[in-house]
Amino acid sequence: MWNVCWCPGGKHQRVNPRAPFCLDVKGNPRNGKVPFEERCILAGFEFSSLFAGDKSKWRRYPNVLKGKRNGGRYGNSNVGPVVELAIEWLLDQGVGDRDQPFSTNSGRKALAGMLTFLNVVFEEGFEMHADLPSTWIDHYQPGCIQANANFRRRKQSTDPGVATRALRRFGQFFGLGGRAPVRQLSLVERQNDMLLRHHGYGQQASQLLLGMNPTMPVKKEKKEEEEKMGDP
Fold first, then answer.
1. How far apart are the C-alpha atoms of 2 and 60, rounded to whole Å?
2. Domain range for 129
3. Is residue 232's pLDDT more than 50?
4. Confidence of residue 139 (pLDDT cuts 50, 70, 90)
5. Contacts of 125 (CB under 8 A, 6+ apart)
6. What are phi and psi of 64, to 5 degrees?
7. In this structure, are 211 and 165 located in the same domain?
8. Do 76 and 12 lie in a common domain?
9. Which residues of 165-198 are buried (b: 16+ CB within 10 A; e: fewer)?
10. Which range (63-72, 96-105, 132-141, 159-168) has the least confidence?
């Protein structure tokens, strides 16, 4: 149930309790936009929880009741297969083909791709997928680094800093939420980071902190020399 704020600048904008009145009878925003940052995971959960009634029963995938009498309220049960609902939602947004919809494993495959792109180690990515190494590394993210060979935990950490580390790195990559590094740096790493930024490589330094593999820009003089050598 852990959530992170993805509001611009990392300062969370709380959802107004009257926000549900922005929806029409079909559940769509009356003015085409909801009155909160829709890209923020925490704000989206706050908004959906306004329909829960009993706040002690907040949950991730509650089933919305239909009909004039109960419409818009949550029932006691959760939605059916969550993955099928997610695929149907994507199709409603115009993403995918109804004749050939996304695989039910497409979400896990996409997650594996992002974790690989940002070089997230298994222990951090586990907090988002909860698979054993034998399942995740063999079937979804081949070559994923497992820092601790004895890691066998199956439940998400109760420490929010640990549980949301990979998710917060995703937010930084997309330019959402806070900008502080999600990992601790040693003295030497901090010194190297400072030197890179001093020499004008701030963008590359930030990419390194995200886990990416940046390329160093070619200096103007060297580029002109290479272009001259390549002329016929």
1. 10
2. 106-173
3. no
4. very high
5. 111, 115, 136, 141, 144, 166
6. -90, 130
7. no
8. yes
9. bbbbbbbbeeebbbeebbeeeeeeeeeebeebee
10. 63-72
Q: What is the pLDDT of residues 161-191, one digit of tens each?
A: 899 999 988 988 888 887 766 677 888 988 9
Q: Quick one: 59 and 19 in the same domain?
A: yes
- 83-106 pLDDT, tens digit each: 998 999 899 989 989 999 899 999
Residue 203 in domain: yes
Q: What is the pLDDT of residue 112?
A: 97
Q: Please count the other Cβ atoms lying within 10 Å of the Cβ belonging to residue 87.
A: 20
Pick the closest to residue 41 from 219, 168, 202, 220 (CA basis).
168
Strands 62-64 and 74-78: antiparallel
Which two tokens mark 3?
Answer: 């959530």
Total domains present in the chain: 3
Determine the residue type at 167: L
Q: Tell me, yes or no, whether 65 lies in a domain.
A: yes
Calpha distance 135→100 (Å, rounded):
26
Same domain, 168 and 199: no
Query: Does residue 87 lie within any of the structural domains?
Result: no
Does residue 232 sit in the same domain as residue 168?
no
Residue 86 lies in a domain: no
23-38 as b/e: b if 16+ CB within 10 A: eeeeeeeeeeebebbe
- Is residue 206 pLDDT above 90, yes or no? no
d(CA 122, CA 118): 12
Residue 226: CB atoms within 10 Å: 10
